[in-house]
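User: Okay, second chain of the day. Same drill as before: sequence in, structure tokens out.
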Amino acid sequence: MPGLRKEVRVLSADAFRALDVSDEVLKALDGMGIENPTDIQKETIPVMMAGRDIIGIAPTGTGKTVAFGIPMLEYISLKETRVQELVLAPTRELAQQIVQELTDLARFIPQVKIAALYGGQPMSRQINQLKHKPQIVVATPGRTLDMVNRGHVSLAHVHTLVIDEADEMLKMGFVKDVTRIIEMAPVDRQLVMFSATTNRDVMTISWRYQREPVEIVVEATKENRPQIAQHTLLIPRDKKMEALQYLLDSDEFDRVMVFVNTKFMAQRLSDKLVKEGYSARALHGDIRQSQRTQVMNDFKRGKFPILVATDVAARGIDVDDVEAVINYDLPNENEYYLHRIGRTGRARKHGVSFTMMTFQESVRMDEILRYIQSKPTPLHFDAQGILRREDEEAFFENI
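Assistant: Same drill. Structure tokens below.
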């Protein structure tokens, strides 16, 4: 298993050039503000450029898109008019994010064409993208199969297939779709899978379809672990709103993500915050795709400070300066806790997370803490939803 290497502070051009990255991509990395390769990038780029199958396990926010995006761009055939690279993502939001990062990486390679295929957008618009003969397609599994079955795209010449967020994708029920897509590609294609965690479905896909894969595991070390101060809030259910307002009124955060478990709650809480005078928007599955895209773009541009979201809707949101994550609802899955708090503390910045729980939910929170092997600092609110005086000093010191 690859060892973890201590990062050396050098110029990006030298650090990435050592990985045999072209001048065009180096220039793009500089424009993206990427100075040094992360551990997953250092481990993945040379192995993937050598044509090996990979199963990569790395924490959220460690730069996996750049890790597989650079090799894809380096050995793509610009003269080829058929699809050569396919990236599968579990959600349209993540697919959009990947397309944006790949587009940024290919900024100085104008011949590269990238198409995005996902539900919630008119098929005619995506068919038009395919008519421009893209070399790279980023897609969700369902829309990929739909386009193949309709004869709009062929996977017969794909030489690199990347499955991003494999654990989440397979957990969402895409196992059959993913296996069908893999079997549509050539037998000798390169198969690269990235995942935050491993599970039985991920390993089954690897065993069935990968050829002597290189396993790359990047632990959350001090160098790449998001710097997140975690807090728990033991509070009665009917006082959550007051506690949320207290956190928002601390004037310490300019950009906050609030997580809930259901679409109904996302809209309800967002409406409540707006009614109380806060600038907030909701992001959930019942919102039309065009609106969801607009909400995400406005949040990234800082047009409003508070985004209330469900777990699925928030997948793929990559905003470097989210300062705080608030778990208004305790997540249903242990992994979701990591995905949620991983929205802050990105790009080597510090972040803070707050998780609200009732007394009855404290047992469930203990289970999450055993899973993440972490010990957040508890904060105590009184019956009116106000932070106890003895906790105020620690609260403001930590944020």
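Confidence is low (pLDDT under 50) at residues 1-12.

User: Thanks, on to the next one.
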